[in-house]
Amino acid sequence: xxxxxxxxxxxxxxxxxxxxxxLHNGKxxxxxxxxxxxxxxxxxxxxIVATGSDEAILALATKDSRRIDLKGHRVVPxxxxxxxxxxxxxxxxxxxxxxxxxxxxxREAIAALPTTGDGWITAxxxxxxxxxxxxxxxxxxxxxxxxxxxxxxxxxxGMLVNSAAQRALGLSLDDVPAGGWLGRDASGAxxxxxxxxxxxxxxxxxxxxxxxxxxxxxLDSDALLRLGVTSIQNMAIGTPLPDFITAWLETGTPLRxxxxxxxxAREPGQPPDHLxxxxxxxxxxxxxxxxxxxxxxxxPMEGGAAMxxxxxxxxxxxxxxxxxxxxALLREIAGxxxxxxxxxxxxxxxxxxxxxxxxxxxxxxxxxxxPRIEHGEGLAPDxxxxxKEYGVVLVQNPSHFMLPPAEAAYLDAHRLQPLxxxxxxxxxxxxxxxxxxxxxxxxxxxxxxxxxxxQALSREQVLRAYTAGSAFAESSxxxxxxxxxxxxxxxxxxxxxxxxxxxxxxxxxxTRSLLTMGAGEIGWRDPGF
Length: 529
Ligand SMILES: [Zn+2]
Prior knowledge:
The chain is of the alpha/beta class. The chain has helices at residues 2-16, 54-58, 103-111, 127-131, 137-143, 163-169, 197-203, 210-225, 241-251, 323-335, 347-360, 363-369, 384-389, 405-413, 420-424, 439-447, 459-472, and strands at 19-24, 27-29, 37-38, 40-44, 47-52, 61-69, 74-77, 79-84, 121-125, 149-153, 158-161, 180-184, 190-196, 229-234, 256-261, 287-295, 340-344, 372-375, 393-396, 429-431, 491-494, 513-518, 521-525. The chain has three domains: 2-72, Roll (Urease, subunit C, domain 1); 79-85 and 209-514, TIM Barrel (Alpha-Beta Barrel), CATH 3.20.20; 103-203, Diaminopimelate Epimerase, Chain A, domain 1, CATH 3.10.310. The chain is 30% helix and 22% strand. The chain has an eight-stranded parallel sheet. Mean pLDDT is 92; it is low at 1-16.
C-alpha cells in the first residue's frame, strides 16, 4: 500500500509539473536503493517528489519554482541524531574545569570561591575525582561549609555533594529512590557519593530556569543545524517534558524533535508523568513525544556497567534494578504500546534485559515495539541471536569508542562494544552522539573505532546508520532517512564530500553544512553559499 501511495504522489505532482523547489547540480547520496545517486531533487509541499538527473528534474520546474544550484556539493539526507541530552541538569555551572583536572585542581577551584552566601556551586568532574576517597563529604565540607556544592561526574552516572547540598536536595540514607544508591564511609555514614537514580529525583527540586533552558536549546539546535542535523531524539533527564516542549517552541528552532520520556524512578513500573501529552499535536508538528528511557546501569568508565567478567579491580559493576524491577518497567511500557529505550552498557545488564523481554511479552510483540539498547557495549557475541529474536535495535555512540586504553583493552578482550558485527548480524543500527554533537567527528570515530579496531564501518555505513538507521529507531522510516519520493525533504548540502576517500578521515570533523533543509524549508544557510 505504501509504495502505491508514494507512486500516486509522484505522478500527481509530476503530471501537474508543480514542484515548488528544485535542487540541481549536486552529488546526491539518497540512501534510496531504487536510485542511490542523483544530481537533482524536486520538492513539493515539503516532500520529495523525485530525484534524478538535472535534465529530468529541471523539466519538472515552472517559472515559479525556486531553483537552488548545489554547485557540485555532496548532499545527504538530514542527519538524525538518535541520542542527545539537551537539558538543564544543573542550577548553573560555576566552575569550568578541564575533564582531566585532578582532585588537587578541583579542590583549589572550590576553595577559591567565597564561602558565604547561599548560591550553589556546581561543576563537572572527571571519574578519577569521583573515585578519589579523599574527595568525600567531610573534605568538601572543609572547603565549603555552608554553600551547597554539587560535583557531577561527566558520564552523568554519579555525583559528589557536601552537607549543605545533601540538606538542600533532601538526600538521606533512610529514603533512597529505587534505581540509585548513596556511598557510605567506614562507619556507615553517608560519604557524599550519589549514584544513578538517587541523583535525579532530588535534582528536580532545584529551581526551574526557563530562560537558561531556552538559551541552551537555541544554542545547541543552531549548532546542530550548521552541521547538517535535521532531527534529534532527545532525553532531557530532569526537565519536565511540558517545560522542555514549551521552551523548545519558544526558540522557534526548525530542528525536528523526538522528545523521549525519562521517568525518574520512584518505583519501576509506575507510569511516567505527563502521559496526557499526545505523541503528535498539530500545534507542534515538528515535535513527536514517544519512547520511554530507563537507565539500567552505569558505564565502563566508572566501573558501573554490570559485566559478567570482572573489571581489573575484581568488581562487576551493578544493575540499577533487580530482575523484577526491569520486568515491571518493561511491562508498563509495553502496556502503553510504547518503545523502551534502555541504557544498557554491560553484558550482564543486556543478559538481564533479554531475560526480562522474554518474561514480559512475546518476541513478536517486542519486535513490533523495537526495544532500543542505548550504547550497546554489552552486546557480546553470545547474546546477538536472542537480541535479534526480540527485535532489539542498537544505538551506538561513536565517541564511546575513544575510551582510555585500560577500558578499551577490557572491551576488546571480551569482544564487547560491536559496531560492524551489528550490521553483519542483521540487527538494526542507529547512531547518536551522546557526547560531541558533530556527526562528522563521529564519522571519523566510527570508521576507525580505537577500542574495537576490527569493528570499523565504512563511511556509507555510518551515513546510513545516522539517517535511515536512526529513522528506523524512532519508527519514522516511512517519512525520514532517505531522499526518495514521498519522504520529507530533510537534507544537508555539505562543505566537503564525506564519502570521498580523498578527504582523509582526520579532515572529516571539519565538515560543515552549507544548507540545511527541513521539509523543504531552509533551516540554515551559510552566507557564502
Ligand atoms: Zn545518554
